[in-house]
Design a protein that fits this description.
The protein is of the alpha+beta class and about 400 residues long. The protein has twelve helices and twelve strands. The two termini are about 50 Å apart.
Length: about 400
């Protein structure tokens, strides 16, 4: 009776944990995709936004704002803005003079070019500038330059093109509001594939040697060391790459700086090597001893038995290790930031600086806001899709090989 009750309790507990995990994972995926889709579906704001600086008393279209901080959101459909505020000006001769400054401009929401969307009918003594795309700044003279009143007019950015996002080669989110991630996609794929090409053969050789040819006691010691390497934080690998791999690449190839795509590939290969080796070696040891004995009894050598009998029997575990290694290579952040150089330019030469998708998210998430922050979520969606496609391609290749 007690055993049956305990089984029911544990069954309910496992069911609750599984449901909670599924709901949490689903919520994360939905949040990521919803945030990542926003830049391509809607504008940054329904209408104009004003950001006043050092304007204690401001009147906009008949509405007064006193000591206002933050955005002034104008109603959607506003096409004309009339603004006024009191000011003081020290002209140097007659002392401090006071008055009222005014600003009038028209907004055309249908304009294709953002630079032509505003038509300033009255500036007064203000000076107009455009420090970045979709932003106009009007500055007025003040008692001192640091205390001069200033108004920023923020135009709504239209939905960004998805194809321009994937195929664009320019990433300048703060000034020109351009969000092309094609160079980062290429750098991510090259770094991951290069690490796989180097790491997988080495890991498979190590796993076969440990499981088939190394004495059990020595293999147990080596296994513990490799598992320890698999648990080392990525920032430690990055620091090792910065102090050892980067200078070695610089000196060997005679280039000005060793922070290159090749350095990232080498460090990623070192990082995924313990993971793939551990999983592959465990799968190889799980192959029944009878399969080995049958192969040896038929006259095959130990090497032939290892590569033609043991490895094919353990291919599912080896492929699982490759999938985990590739996922880690694609999703690695800190180590790549330290050694790759982080240049958002298209790098087809492994001796050039490059920036991956994960490095972009880590470097810019701390200060990104508005459309910029939403685009970083979109990069996360692209990264998620890349990992799914790569893993799906590996599994499809395995099934085709098993079917044939």
């Amino acid at each position: 009776m007690r055993k049956t009750t305990a089984d029911k309790i544990f069954r309910l507990l496992f069911t609750a944990v599984a449901l909670f995990s599924a709901l949490a994972l689903g919520a994360i995926v939905v949040f990521l995709f919803s945030q990542g889709a926003m830049p391509f579906l809607s504008a940054t704001a329904p209408g104009l936004r004003l950001v006043p600086q050092r304007m204690a008393d401001l009147t906009v279209n008949g509405e007064r704002y006193v000591d206002h901080a933050g955005f002034i959101h104008l109603p959607e459909g506003t096409t004309r803005v009339e603004l006024s505020f009191p000011f003081e000006l020290d002209d140097g001769a007659s002392g401090v003079a006071g008055g009222t400054e005014s600003l009038v401009f028209d907004f055309d929401p249908s304009a294709r070019d953002w630079e032509a969307a505003l038509d300033f009918a009255r500036l007064g003594s203000g000076a107009l500038s455009s420090p970045e795309a979709y932003v106009f700044t009007v500055s007025w003279p003040g008692p001192i330059a640091a205390a001069a009143p200033r108004l920023h007019v923020l135009l709504p950015e239209p939905p960004y093109g998805f194809w321009a996002f994937l195929s664009g080669r320019t990433w300048q989110p703060t000034i020109f509001k351009m969000y092309g991630i094609f160079p980062m996609i290429v750098a991510t794929m090259l770094a991951a594939l290069g690490a796989i090409l180097i790491g997988v053969p080495l890991a498979l050789f190590c796993a076969v040697f440990m499981s088939e040819f190394l004495p059990p006691r020595i293999a147990a010691i080596a296994r513990g060391g490799i598992e320890l390497l698999a648990g080392i934080p990525s920032v430690v690998y990055g620091f090792f790459g910065l102090m050892v791999v980067v200078p070695a690449v610089r000196n060997f190839f005679g280039i000005p700086a060793g922070n290159t795509l090749l350095s990232a590939i080498i460090v990623l290969a070192l990082m995924i090597l313990p993971t793939i080796t551990t999983i592959a070696e465990t799968s190889l040891r799980a192959v029944p001893l009878a399969a080995r004995e049958a192969s040896l009894a038929l006259g095959a050598s130990p090497m032939q038995t290892a590569w033609r009998v043991v490895v094919p029997h353990a291919n599912s575990g080896v492929i699982a290790g490759v999938i985990l290694g590739m996922s880690r290579a694609v999703g690695e952040t800190m180590a790549v930031i330290l050694v790759a150089g982080n240049s958002p330019q298209l790098a087809l030469n492994p001796l050039e600086s490059a920036r991956t998708l994960t490095a972009t998210i880590a470097l810019e998430m701390g200060y990104a806001a508005g459309r910029h922050g939403e685009m970083l979520f979109s990069i996360g969606v692209v990264l998620f899709a890349i990992i799914l496609l790569l893993n799906g391609a590996i599994l499809w290749t395995r099934r085709r090989a098993e079917a044939s």
